């Protein structure tokens, strides 16, 4: 389980949210409160949108609390839309290529959760990535595979629908292979304009995910940070939160089709 | 293109071969003579057999010449069979998981060469790795994929035959996808007892590979190093050199079936 | 505060003590029980004596729990005398050169503790290192400075006396500069034959340090690990434990002269 | 010997100068033409001024050509004044803390050259750094020591004069210790507004240093890069080039007092 934070709004210096607040993401790396693994020391990363259509990306294997480059970057970079992530490795080695966020073209993605039985399913999950996107597979995490598979399912056009289809396909593979652990998914995705935050799990117990409004815009995070902890709202299970570039936000149902039908096909 | 060295014989300290000689592998990392890329600074690694049936493994992204851990290890470790590799990245990011050698159970593998058109072929090459071995896929190089696919083809039982079948299957995928660049392969493999050194290319121009006898045993290397450069023999193209634990060595033809028949199938 | 372990006895594989036991050092890296900072994720290292008079050294900035090279080394290397350390940075950046243990010639050293007011005292502490040893100063920790200063004070001849003099000189500098925090020192040192374990603090509250006998020899550690927690003995405050190559062990007083006299000199 | 580049002018994206040009600094890292060591693979770094008075800093031990974070940063960050450096280690381990540029408060510094006999002089050079600045000593290079010593000599007030005094003091220590190798100094320094570029050596053979005007401002570099190689001017030996925030540039003599008198003092 990892911890992450995403911001969308007026441009702010990244350390405003990431370093300064009490119980900031960087503090959570050493002592998360709402995670099964309190230490998230297996790498960290930030992605941000600036002048270019594609995001900037910094990822490193060091724990966030000891990474001088990360601290300097957060202190310097002002952005209207950024992601930050601290990792507790569940699948994939401790390696820069396995750190979040992941970028492809204009798109940015990060994830907290897991594909149940991933080690046995890996080749089948990889097979959900189209040939044209496969060269972008740099690491071996389930998270990067979900992102690339979702791009293949139309993430650029209709993000929530593509994500529903992708998780449906993965759940299907899990069912076919008899995976006993659930598919759990708290994630953030951006096309450089909108921010999508997802919370869903095949067993109804997704990782925690919160959002709140601050003066400058919206923050989404694995767990509350900063002063006013009561100002945070939980993203309900089975929900996608969409924040438009205009600042409009809406919650909508996020529904993944149970792979029963597919199991039936397999039985046929 | 990378540079590598393998040793098999009486136990010796690794730095005897790797650090001390004139034009040693570590010197070659900075200035190789027989390679298209003279600088091999994209990571390094050693694998060695000691008391355990499985080899020890040290791999790092730093250039070999600046890696204090590598120097200390080579200075301390005595081994009867070891591999060393300096990398110039052709496929796969600069990452520890993409450094050679690769280990699986008792087996050790390293490679210099390339799969032509690998970026487009990657998913198909990955599909040659059996499900049971896929969890061992830690990185994204063509080299690691060849190794795991060969394990699936029976590398543990009849190594040269399994390697011929593996390269045949890969050549077949290349033909099906219309790859225009060749498949080139200079590699070393060990099961912990025997050392196999391969030199072959689909276009008849494999990377260089040499061997020589020293007092203590056999050395195989991408290019000659040490004092007596004339003592080195080239491994002929289309040949596998096998060195038995007993010290017996033999050269045998290494033949990969041209994918013409398969192309015919595809045409049918 | 860091965690460490040292072993001296019949040669054993390092992972016997470091990885396998319940609450092993590597487990302590993520969740120490007797340390002010439960996470020791700012690097790790091992030093070991083999065939060479000088020790082998492996140090890295990654947390011990995610370091594949460390795991492989511990799995392969058999040693009669080894040190292992996981770091929680108090002075000095997160960098390989600041990881313990430190080596100089035949000597190995690691430390848990601190020099009170070190940031203001650094130049004066560095000045305690003789010119001839200064080139070996690779990093910026107080621990490495103590080691090099002690070598200058005769650590090679009479280790405990040299260490007493060194800590006395440091305490003197602290007094001269008006440092308000204490000097705390739990440390291990070896000349390749004997193992010295020190526990002392200027305020009488040194970091914890334990020792026990196992079948193969002696273990010294920051906190008990393994099964029989009751088999561990605390090294008393103000004591040095010496383990001879013969297996003989003795506890002796370790007394550092209070810098009152020196303060008087300064006042004069 | 290292390679570096500094820019001062209208804000531009860093990769305009660092990545895109033929024979760019990143290409020079692998194959410098005017350096004794053609490979500069022992780390890299950039420093840049943005909205904050203090510069941003990114430094890493990887060779510049394989560092994905560096590439992304250079692609995203727009700056009116930035430094970039690729290192070939002469003094100090391969470590992030030994990579250039170095920052202190608003000031940024990078260096190509050496203090002759530095390994024997290190403690004396360190002693030139005032206590108040010593906590900023993060690594062990001669370059960082020159920078901190120069801050102690008044670099913030009159940069060229402070640098002359600092090099004079170092030359004096070299003379006292009988160093036989020269003091060579090509360096860039900024206070966030002005850019100073120095070229001087005790033996009259300083490392190469060039400058040119481009549409947007001034570039200073160890060796010419980009298309119009004839547009580059060499900074004469014994000269400091100052570029004001206004865009005014001037060359002035840079004279370091020969330590003969001091040697006489020592003899007296």
UniProtKB/TrEMBL annotation, chains A, B, C, D:
Cross-referenced PROSITE patterns: GATASE_TYPE_2
MF-aspect GO terms: transferase activity
Q: Which UniProt keywords apply?
A: Glutamine amidotransferase, Transferase
The record ties this protein, via InterPro entries, to: EgtC-like (IPR026869), Gamma-glu_amide_hydrolase (IPR052373), GATase_2_dom (IPR017932), Ntn_hydrolases_N (IPR029055)
Q: Which residues form the Glutamine amidotransferase type-2 domain?
A: 2-246
Domain of life per record: Bacteria
Q: What is this protein called?
A: Glutamine amidotransferase
User: Species name for this entry?
Assistant: Consotaella salsifontis
């Amino acid at each position: 389980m990892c911890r992450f934070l995403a911001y969308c709004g007026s441009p702010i210096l990244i350390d405003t949210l990431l370093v300064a607040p009490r119980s900031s993401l960087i503090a959570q790396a050493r002592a998360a409160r709402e995670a099964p693994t309190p230490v998230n020391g297996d790498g960290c990363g930030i992605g941000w949108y600036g002048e270019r259509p594609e995001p900037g990306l910094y990822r490193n294997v060091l724990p966030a609390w000891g990474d001088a480059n990360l601290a300097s970057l957060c202190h310097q970079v002002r952005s209207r839309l950024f992601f930050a992530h601290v990792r507790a490795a569940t699948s994939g080695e401790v390696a820069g290529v396995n750190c979040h966020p992941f970028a492809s073209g204009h798109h940015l993605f990060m994830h907290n959760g897991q594909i149940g039985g991933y080690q046995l399913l890996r080749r089948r999950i990889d097979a959900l990535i189209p040939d044209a996107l496969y060269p972008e597979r740099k690491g071996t995490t389930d998270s990067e595979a979900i992102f690339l598979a979702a791009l293949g399912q139309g993430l650029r056009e209709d993000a929530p629908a593509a994500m529903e289809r992708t998780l449906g396909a993965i759940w299907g593979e899990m069912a076919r292979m008899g995976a006993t652990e659930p598919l759990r998914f708290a994630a953030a995705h951006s096309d450089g304009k909108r921010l999508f935050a997802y919370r869903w799990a095949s067993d109804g117990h997704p990782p925690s995910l919160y959002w709140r409004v601050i003066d400058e815009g919206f923050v989404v995070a694995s767990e509350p940070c900063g002063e006013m902890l009561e100002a945070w709202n939980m993203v309900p299970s089975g929900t996608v939160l969409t924040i438009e570039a205009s600042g409009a936000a809406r919650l909508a149902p996020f529904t993944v089709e149970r792979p029963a039908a597919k199991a039936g096909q397999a039985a046929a």
